[in-house]
């Protein structure tokens, strides 16, 4: 079985993204050498494969595990963490935000819970005077980057939150949840905010300040070849070379490369990370799951750390197809 067949004979979410990003792209722009990244707007919501996601497999399991108050829960995790990362998982699997079941889940969340600083720690609680609506975010930019991405994806874009994140951009071009105590940006926070700004831009259209902020944030990562310290050239964190799914807020080169693919910004400084990604391909043509940051999800995603990963294989193949369309 080829890697493509292996992906197609899988969860509806993986099958749909494989069709969108690999099969259909192969039949169109790849042959011309000018591939453009496929996004949700390029495939009709009525796609039979996409329509299965809320009703079968991982997507259905996520939706059915939502609590009556709109949250998702995991033992020993705060409500905000479980809810945020579960919603981000729904975005990652490409679930159709226009599907009535999906929209009902989003409405249930946004009408039942808000961000409430009580006492001194942000969490999700029933709406109270002074509480921030879910899609308006809370304090930390790493969290708010994810919230902004969700708002853009699920049709609730927040210009207020986008402007807040832009105002928090540091001098070196990135973001850090420890600012202003720290004046240096964080890889983790920066990728979260970049994903949020890109999804916001997709939802409302480009705006000069958003485009400029994304360009500066991208430059922060590119100057470091996606994983090196600017000062010494050393690997900034060995975990950046471990391919994870789902990532939670954690940074790695595959997550960064998939962002640049989605933003359609090819740059020669991506080549070292691309080379590492290619070197991690297994003899059977797949990639492994190095780590899974799934501790806040209501249940494991279903892949085994150290074993073959369809999610990492899908993302790696589409990155390579975009970066090297003639390979």
Main sheet: strands, sense, barrel: 3 strands, antiparallel
Silhouette:
globular
Main sheet: strand order: 2-1-3
Q: CA-to-CA gap between the ends? A: 20 Å
Give the overall average pLDDT.
91
What is the alpha-carbon Rg in Å? 19 Å
Q: Show unreliable segments.
A: 27-45
How many β-strand stretches? 5
Structural class: mainly alpha
The run of helices and strands is HHHHHHEEEHHHHHHEEH
Give an account of the 3D structure:
The protein is mostly helical. Helices cover 46% and strands 4% of the residues. The strands form two sheets. A three-stranded antiparallel beta sheet has the order 2-1-3. The protein has a two-stranded antiparallel sheet with strand order 4-5. Strand 1 and strand 2 form a beta hairpin. Helix 9 runs parallel beside helix 11. It is globular, with a radius of gyration of 19 Å. The two termini are 20 Å apart.
Secondary-structure map with pairings?
Elements: H1 3-8, H2 12-27, H3 48-52, H4 57-64, H5 79-92, H6 100-112, E1 114-117, E2 122-125, E3 132-133, H7 141-153, H8 159-167, H9 187-204, H10 208-222, H11 253-263, H12 271-279, E4 287-288, E5 308-309, H13 310-323
Antiparallel strand pairs: 1-2, 1-3, 4-5
Summarize the structure.
This protein is mainly alpha-helical and 327 residues long.
List keywords for this structure.
mainly alpha, globular, two-stranded antiparallel sheet, 327 residues, 46% helix, 4% strand, three-stranded antiparallel sheet, single chain
């Amino acid at each position: 079985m080829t890697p493509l067949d292996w992906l197609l004979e899988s969860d509806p979410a993986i099958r749909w993204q494989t069709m969108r990003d690999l099969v259909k792209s192969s039949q169109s722009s790849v042959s011309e050498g000018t591939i453009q990244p496929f996004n949700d707007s390029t495939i009709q919501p009525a796609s039979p494969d996409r329509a299965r996601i809320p009703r079968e497999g991982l997507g259905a399991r996520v939706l059915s595990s939502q609590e009556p108050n709109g949250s998702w829960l995991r033992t020993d995790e705060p409500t905000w963490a479980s809810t945020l990362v579960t919603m981000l998982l729904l975005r990652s699997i490409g679930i159709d935000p226009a599907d009535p079941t999906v929209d009902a889940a989003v409405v249930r969340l946004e009408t039942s819970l808000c961000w409430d600083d009580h006492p001194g720690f942000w969490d999700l609680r029933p709406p109270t005077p002074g509480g921030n609506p879910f899609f308006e975010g809370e304090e930390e930019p790493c969290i708010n980057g994810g919230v902004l991405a969700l708002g853009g994806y699920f049709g609730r874009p927040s210009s207020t939150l986008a402007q807040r994140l832009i105002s928090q951009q540091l001098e070196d071009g990135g973001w850090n949840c420890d600012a202003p105590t720290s004046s240096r940006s964080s890889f983790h926070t920066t990728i979260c905010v970049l994903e949020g700004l890109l999804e916001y831009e997709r939802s409302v259209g480009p705006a000069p300040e958003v485009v400029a902020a994304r360009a500066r944030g991208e430059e922060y990562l590119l100057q470091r070849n996606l994983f090196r310290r600017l000062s010494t050239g050393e690997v900034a964190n060995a975990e950046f070379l471990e391919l994870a799914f789902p990532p939670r807020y954690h940074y790695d080169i595959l997550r960064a490369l998939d962002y640049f693919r989605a933003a359609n910004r090819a740059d020669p400084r991506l080549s070292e990370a691309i080379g590492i990604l290619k070197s991690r391909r297994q003899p059977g043509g797949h990639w492994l799951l190095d780590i899974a940051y799934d501790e806040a999800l209501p249940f494991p995603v279903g892949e085994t750390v150290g074993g073959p990963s369809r999610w990492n294989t899908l993302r790696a193949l589409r990155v390579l197809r975009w970066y090297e369309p003639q390979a």
